[in-house]
Amino acid sequence: MKISVVMAVYNGEKYIEEQLMSILSQSIMPDELIIQDDGSSDSTTDKIQSITEKSDVSVKLVKNKENLGFSKNFITAISAASGEYIFLSDQDDIWKKDRIKRALSVMEDNKNILALSSAFDLIDEDGVVIKKANNSKKLVNISQKEFIKHPKFPGMAMVFKKELWEYLQHSGKVDWESGIAHDWAINYVALKKHGMYKLEESLICYRQHSSNTFGTAMAGGFNQKDKRIKLIKSLMDNARGIKAESQSEEKLLEGIVSFNEKRIHFYEHDRLLRLLLHEFAHMKYISLRSIMGDIYTNLRGRNR
């Protein structure tokens, strides 16, 4: 069994050492670590080379000639992975010591799993725990309904099978030029194949800070209004990036786009009441938790 870890980095000098050390001290070590730098202007790559040069793990550091952006950086890096199991990693989190061991154990015991997400604790910039995850250790098969309503299964908490990625690359199901997020696409196709699962056990510390691409709305208030709108737009890009295979799937994807277009309109015009009426009328596309996040972010934006 070969294990790959894929990390995308960009100007991550502040936290990269702590994250790399957590990966390189796992109870089960990966066979390869692929790190793709998207044109950092700080000391990120120097630190990576210094930390990994004495590692027993095969480390491949790729430096992009031009900035690809967060998702495309991951997409190209994942394509270089050769492991049967592929773990994704951001540059600023902390893996718990048994992340690889525990995730592999679950996937080996449940062969139908194609993509597995774990729970995670939220930490702040200094590594202090903001919120502990549910640690019931329950394994949950994620449904399409649940995923569409609240697609909070970030790549940093994922491991998936190489066979799933090969299908994604060759089936034509995903338009990678649409702006679709790599983690959303992987999970969406896995659930269509009844193979998307979540382990309710915290295996990672997910760091929340002002430079998070999206982050969590209520984790210390880092996610401001413009970042929330960016997140909503990404949901539209995700839906547009999937090739529908039936009329019902096409209707679902079009509904996601239409729902979020109106959501953004109300957001941008500070019409909170209209936003809430719209969301409560279309709860097949949004969870109550996401609605609460919209209320929090909208009101906080007004009070700045």
Can you characterise this structure?
This protein is of the alpha/beta class and 304 residues long. Helix content is 41%, strand content 19%. The chain is built from eleven helices and ten strands. Strands 1, 2, 3, 4, 5, 6, 7, 8, 9 and 10 form a ten-stranded mixed sheet that branches. β1 (3-9), α1 (16-23) and β2 (32-37) form a beta-alpha-beta unit.
Looking at the chains present, what oligomeric state does this protein adopt? Answer: single chain
Describe the biggest sheet?
10 strands, mixed
Low-confidence stretches: 217-223
By secondary-structure content and strand pairing, the structural class works out as alpha/beta
What is the global morphology?
globular
What is the helical fraction, as a range of percent? 40-55%
- Secondary-structure element order, N to C: EHEHEHEEHEEEHEHHEHHHH
- Number of helices in the DSSP assignment: 11
Strand percent estimate: 15-25%
Task: Count every beta strand, where a strand is a DSSP E run of 2 or more residues.
Answer: 10
Rounded average pLDDT:
93
Give the termini distance in whole angstroms.
52 Å
Question: How large, in whole angstroms, is the Cα Rg?
Answer: 19 Å
List keywords for this structure.
304 residues; alpha/beta; ten-stranded mixed beta sheet; 41% helix
Write the layout of secondary structure elements.
Blueprint: E1 3-9, H1 16-23, E2 32-37, H2 44-52, E3 58-63, H3 70-78, E4 85-89, E5 94-95, H4 99-109, E6 115-123, E7 129-131, E8 139-141, H5 144-149, E9 158-161, H6 162-170, H7 182-192, E10 196-207, H8 225-240, H9 247-268, H10 272-281, H11 288-302
Helix pairs in contact: 1-2, 8-9, 9-10, 10-11
